[in-house]
Design brief:
Shape: globular
CATH topology: Alpha-Beta Plaits
Distance between the termini: 6 Å
Number of helices: 2
Radius of gyration: 9 Å
Largest sheet: 2 strands, antiparallel
Structural class: alpha+beta
Number of strands: 4
CATH class: Alpha Beta
Strand content: 15-25%
Length: 56
């Protein structure tokens, strides 16, 4: 399953987008994951400083 961002906890730091190998994450006021591009690697989950990304 693709990564899911719990938007209420996201601080829009961009750390997840920086480690995404397939550029599936965009960041504006919060991070957004494109499920059609996400390869379910989990790197963003490990990198997120607020633990607001999960694999659901």
């Amino acid at each position: 399953m693709p990564a899911f961002v719990h938007e209420e906890e996201c601080i829009a730091c961009g750390a997840c987008a920086d480690v995404c190998a397939v550029e599936a994450i965009t960041v504006d006021e919060v991070a957004h994951v494109n499920p059609d591009i996400c390869i379910d690697c989990g790197m963003c989950v490990e990198e997120c400083p607020t633990n607001c990304i999960s694999m659901e």
